[in-house]
Structure formats: structure tokens, C-alpha cells
Amino acid sequence: MPPITLYFLQASRSIRIAWLLEELGVDYEVKAAEREGQKAPQWMKDEAGGLGKFPVLKDGETFLYESGNITEYLCDKYDTEHRLLPPLGDPKRYQVLQWVHAAEATYMLHSLAILYARWNQKGGDVAATEAGLALNVQKDLDYLASERGKSKGMFLVGDGPTAADVMMEFSVDFILTRELGTKGREWERVDQYRKDCQSTATWKKAQKKTGHQL
Ligand SMILES: N[C@@H](CCC(=O)N[C@@H](CS)C(=O)NCC(=O)O)C(=O)O
């Protein structure tokens, strides 16, 4: 039995950690569950603890929460050659971490506001709320497209996937697939970036092992 268990809620940010584990070549067991309504099933929340949000990683006896935190933990422990996360003090580390944090604190924050309005707004004009909130998402995608335009590598920081891509791929896929604030606009470079991530052998392996499907 591998010492690592990934609690994987369908279809969620959990794919980030499966992709990372495949990139690291670390063996892991998946405990996967479908959502019940929009929520994680109670057995999974009881077993994994914390806030009841997924992914959750168990390494030995230690439980880890928050996909960005799990990403840093796994890189610190298993990425001994610093391929996915450059070492402390290296300026490239902070380029990678910029995207690790932006994936949750900017891209998911802005797009989830729209999903929550669709799900939860009672009364008022949901389309008007969405139009207002779309401004931030559009700026975020414009920025990503412009950074992709400047970069010579296929991925966000260089030629191979890093922790930046592990975190950003899901955010981009989530926004484009659910059309959160995109309002019929297309971002060719962003779409190509998503395709490049999903074409890696490691992402495909993670998808197959977990059954992830947005
Ligand atoms: N910031 C957290 C967010 C985790 C989160 O909200 N996960 C959602 C799925 S993407 C979840 O578990 N929802 C199930 C529920 O609310 O019951 C992270 O990056 O891990």
C-alpha cells in the first residue's frame, strides 16, 4: 500500500494533485467520490477531516489541506531536483509561486463568484450580477494570454510543467468549460495553454487514474 492517499472529489481541483503526483513519479492511492448534489459525501469529509473541502492528501499519518499548500509540500518533499518548484531564494521560484497563488486567490476567486451567483442568488438580476463580475475574469484571462504571448516556453515558466501549471490548468479549464464570465469571448492562447497541459503524458495518466471529467 503506498503511504500517500489522495482524497479525490469529482470533478474538482483534486486533479491538480493527481497531476503533480504523476509529475513527481510518486506512487499514490486514490479515494474518489462523486458529489452528492454539489457537495462532497459525508464519509469522505469524516475520513479526511479539515474543512470538508477537497483535495486532501494523507502522507503517512499526516493530513494536508488546500491544493496550493499540498503542492508546496509535495514539491518540498519529493521534487529534490527542483524541476517543479525552484529552490528558496531563486527568483524563478517566485515566478512559479505567483501562479500557484493566483490560481486560487485570483482566477478561482473571480470565477467562483459567478458560479455562486448562478447557484445561490435569490432574486434580482443574475445576468446583471454576472456581467459585473465578468470584468475581473476577462482581465485575468487577458493577462494570462499576454504572458503566454511573451513566454518562449510551452508552459508558464519554461518548457516543462511546473507547480505553476499544476495549479493554473484547473482554474483555466474551470473558467472556460463553465463559461464563467467569458461572455462568448475566446482567448486562443489560453485555450492552447489548456490543451498543452492536458496533452502531457502525466496529466493524461492522472485523468485516467482518477476519472476526472469537468
Ligand atoms: N482553496 C481550496 C478549495 C477547496 C474546495 O473548495 N474544494 C471544493 C471542490 S473544487 C469542494 O471540496 N467542495 C465540496 C463541498 O463543498 O462539499 C483548495 O484549493 O484546495
UniProtKB/TrEMBL annotation:
Coiled coil: none
InterPro entries documented for this protein: Glutathione-S-Trfase_C-like, Glutathione-S-Trfase_C_sf, Glutathione_S-Trfase, Glutathione_S-Trfase_N, Thioredoxin-like_sf
UniProt superkingdom: Eukaryota
SUPFAM superfamilies referenced in this protein's UniProt entry, alphabetically: GST C-terminal domain-like, Thioredoxin-like
Domain GST C-terminal: 89-214
Pfam families, A to Z: GST_N_3
GST N-terminal domain ranges (all copies): 1-82
PANTHER family, per database record: GLUTATHIONE S-TRANSFERASE 1, GLUTATHIONE S-TRANSFERASE-RELATED
Family, similarity comment: Belongs to the GST superfamily.
Protein name: GST N-terminal domain-containing protein
Organism encoding this protein: Friedmanniomyces endolithicus
